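Collaborator request log, item 7. Partner lab (contact: R.S.) asked for a structural prediction of Sporulation integral membrane protein YlbJ to inform their binding assays.
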Amino acid sequence: MKSKIKSILFAGTALFLAAALITFPDQTLEASIRGLNMWWEIVFPSLLPFFITAELLIGFGVVRFIGVLCEPVMRPLFNVPGAGSFVWAMGMASGYPSGAKLTTRLRQEKQLTKTEAERLVSFTNASNPLFIFGAVSVGFFHDAQLGILLAVCHYGGNTLVGLCMRFYGRDRKERGEEKQRVSLYHALQALHRTRLQDSRPFGKIFGDAVIQSIQTLLMIGGFIIMFSVFNKLIFLIGISKILAAGISLLFTLAGIPGELALPFFSGLFEITLGAQMISGTNLPDMLPEVIVVSFILAFNGFSVQAQVASILAESDIRFTPYFFARILHGIFASTLAILLFKPLYQDQLASSTGSSIPVFAASDGQNWLLSFELLQQFGPLITLLSLACGALILLRRLSR
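Returned to partner:
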């Protein structure tokens, strides 16, 4: 019975999409182009270098080297191997869904147990600093100081999620790690052994890294475009307004203005659109806006969650712990926003002289915004060149 309901649900969703696409062709095309622009201007060029570099570091044993050195830190704090520190750092630097991609690779390399991988993926998918500072704080809110608050809430909440998830699966039997004295010598030995196990020449490793990274990013692009279209369709049909009305009642009970309900609902599907809509509400008190933005940044949005689910499907890592962690992250980030709003935002603005934004914060904000604009300007060229490079590698391999 359960499988029949699932089949009906999937078929109904597909029919709904088909009917909506036929009914609103112009708006669908506009939403599709918007998603495509986001992918080839920002997502592809910003993630590709990280993905390729990560594949090379895994192949050459550098991740194993880092894992041995960081084991005394990661194991007591998060109950994951030291290699998780690499995933954590790369996830924060490059943004989602890098954490899921790298966790899956380490699981495939058998550097993580299933339970360890589920713990790790729960707190290594984060928004990158360029998006928080360049797009959200400066681009949408025109307030560089706000980026500091959002970043502290986002990454601090993520760390708290990791500390909580260390207790996940404690009752299950896991593969025991070999206890050895941590030293640079042992780390170098682990690097060398890992490198010898991979007999591929450098050209093959680099080519595989490029192909695998491009394939993953093409899949991500498809999700971004489809969720951009889906979000637009449910808004045109009126579903968004109906559900937003219910959310508005809950917000009112919680002391949050009801005007944020529709932007919040949109942000649950697509973070960029939700953050942009929240910044446009222009409420007299910014705290409710910060709380809602912090939650949707932590929740990742259903678009990113679908990308993560697709990546995790390549292994035996379950999606449920990750989804639970997203709700937990949203709660932590929103709570931190309430607690830190005065010391990290209001007090900093009050202490500034002659400007609503401190000089150092304004300077940093302009740098983030400039980096974001340069990425939008040259991103399409980088994407096209990378796709051409990947096509050439595939053609060369097929011709052999």
